[in-house]
Design brief:
The protein is mainly β and about 200 residues long. The protein has helices at about 55-65, 75-85, 125-130, and strands at about 5-15, 20-35, 40-55, 90-95, 100-115, 115-120, 135-140, 145-150, 165, 170-175, 185-195. It has an 8-stranded antiparallel barrel. The protein has a 3-stranded antiparallel β-sheet with strand order 4-7-8. The model has no long low-confidence stretch (mean pLDDT about 90).
Length: about 200
């Protein structure tokens, strides 16, 4: 006989460098059925709330506007990046836009419960069709906006890793390994499910 399960997930993902960061928090609820062969099928709804931090970049821009462009040389790679912007004297700040601060994704999930582990993911079609959280980042001048990025912010699985399963409950806490390079990525998550029938 198939088992009925229900659960919740929470995760936070941030990508950042010396200038700015972007990411999201994700809260979700899900239900699924486990067949005799361990195959999982179900439904989930996850709300992704956008986080954008342009504060450091705007503080640097304000500092350069106050002190003059001659200080750019003392700011290392940040100064080089800012110095390459045309019409720097008219640059006001870095801003961002999105159609919605909260993006809700719902649909089928799949996975497997094998022995004492549970793996979950969006269905292959749902993963393919969802392009990410709408986000546009731009340099705001006095009379125009120059895009820095118009790409949607991609999202990770709300069920990272594997959950440990006992007879009635499955749970896991996940922390991504330290990333290398100029842009860092950090993901932390907690998800749990319990048998309801």
């Amino acid at each position: 006989m198939a088992e009925q399960w229900a659960g919740r997930t929470f995760s936070k993902n941030m990508r950042f460098n010396d200038l700015f960061g972007a990411g999201y928090t994700a809260h979700g609820d899900f239900t699924f059925t486990v067949g005799e062969d361990g195959e999982v099928s179900g439904q989930a709804a996850v709300a992704y709330e956008l986080i954008v931090d342009v504060g450091r970049m705007n503080t640097i821009i304000e500092y350069v506007r106050e002190k003059g462009q001659e200080v750019l040389g003392g700011l290392g790679p940040v100064g080089i990046a800012l110095g390459s912007i045309g019409e720097f004297g008219r640059l006001m700040r870095v801003g961002y836009e999105t159609e919605q601060q909260l993006t809700i994704l719902s649909g089928p999930i799949s996975g497997a419960m094998i022995s004492d582990t549970l793996k979950l993911q969006w269905s292959a079609r749902k993963q393919r069709d969802f392009k990410g959280i709408p986000l546009r980042v731009y340099y705001e001048h006095q009379d125009k906006k120059d895009p820095i990025s118009k790409n949607p912010l991609s999202v990770e699985s709300p069920w990272p890793g594997e959950a440990n399963v006992d007879q009635w409950q499955a749970m896991t806490a996940y922390q991504s390994p330290a990333s290398k390079g100029d842009t860092k990525t950090e993901t932390s998550a907690y998800w749990t499910a319990h048998r309801v029938g």
